[in-house]
Amino acid sequence: MEKTYSLTAHYDEFQEIKYGGRYSSDVLSNGMTLHLGGSLDRHVARGRGGSGSSSTGRNRDMCNVHGGGGSGAGGLPRWSRREICLLSALVFAAGMCVILGSMLALKYISLEAQQDPLCRHDCQRRRTLLRAARFIQANIDPTIQPCQDFYSFACGGWLRRHGIPEDKLSYGIITAIGEHNEEKLRRLLLEPVRRHGGNSAERKVKEFYRSCVDIREIDALGSLPMSQVIDSCGGWDLVAAAAPAGAGWEDEGAPQRPDFNDMLYRTQGMYSTAVFFSLTVNVDDKNSSRNAIRIDQEGLTLPERSLYLGQDEDSVKILAAYKALMERLLSMLGAHNATLKSKEILQLETRLANITVSESDDQRKDISSMYNRITLRQLQRTAPSLHWKRLLDRIFHDNFSEDEEIVVLATDYMQKVSDIIKTTSKR
């Protein structure tokens, strides 16, 4: 049999030759043989007559194509002119899109750099206004006419959605905001420490907070830390049993008398506990450009002075419960004769309550009537039972002059506290 060769032409959607294949077999893929001399012999069964002439024509085209150049002899795909044109147009369009996009992005960045402070301020203000509007809308009661009952109109939504918790006597928006802020602070304090330096305020406050909420460690230590604090202040019995009886911290004859001013420094300066009075640094109420040391009345454990006076049945119950709690705590902290000691402490607090002005009194609402700016020398004459310069020097790590000015908001109270300290039993 004479050796034959076959060429196959493949067409694209434009009816142009896309690529061709060369076969060394004498039989084409459609079952026909092709002689280089030019005639086709069909080796297919009857019924394919219509397809033979078409295949013959396409294969002849393929022979003419490959006869001149032979570039498709390897059977690799060839791009038509239309495909090349379409691909070039597509690449050009994509390049133009990239260029235009880059130009727009650069223009936007330049505009943002020029207007960023103003834009951010305006956007922040807009967000704040929207948040405030949503808050007001949620708290009002639109079913009530404001001209008839403005309080219910303005607060009806809030009252409907919030009841008074069982552990609180009252509840309002200020309390809710405080709780929200406390939750934010709690999450911040529980985050990992990022500044581990010895003087890092972040490390100190986070470790302090975690020590307060570590219930397992607190239970393991028991009363030991508090007992150590009490012992460092002189213990429960401040003078020996052989000390002479009587009153007066200023009594020079009392043996083994502890330094009262040193204990006051420990409570006020080291443990930040207001004993007999509060000592803070605040903005001067009559000169907001400066800060001032401010002294005010303080020292009661119960929230209101009237509770110590037993003026009604509820006050009597609260006072009895407070005394029972005090006895239990004293016993747990190792105090001997806890009943007697709790009675003496309650008597001292009652004396302080009698000289304390209620916060609801009009006198406490008028800062002008309370404000009294005096020098350290004048303060020493007003309350001579305490060594003020020594106390302030140690607390503020400074060396104040006698002319240093201090704001006293309860002058009468400080005079009477000095008398109570002087006349109270040393024990």
UniProtKB/TrEMBL annotation:
Signal sequence region: none
Segments of this protein annotated with the region Disordered: 43-64
PROSITE patterns per the UniProt record, alphabetical: NEPRILYSIN
Keywords per UniProt: Membrane, Transmembrane, Transmembrane helix
GO cellular component: plasma membrane
Keyword Ribosomal protein: no
InterPro entries, A to Z: Peptidase_M13, Peptidase_M13_dom_2, Peptidase_M13_N
Keyword Plastid: no
Domain Peptidase M13 N-terminal: 146-426
Full protein name: Endothelin-converting enzyme-like 1
Organism per entry: Merluccius polli
Lineage: Eukaryota, Metazoa, Chordata, Craniata, Vertebrata
Gene of this entry: Ecel1
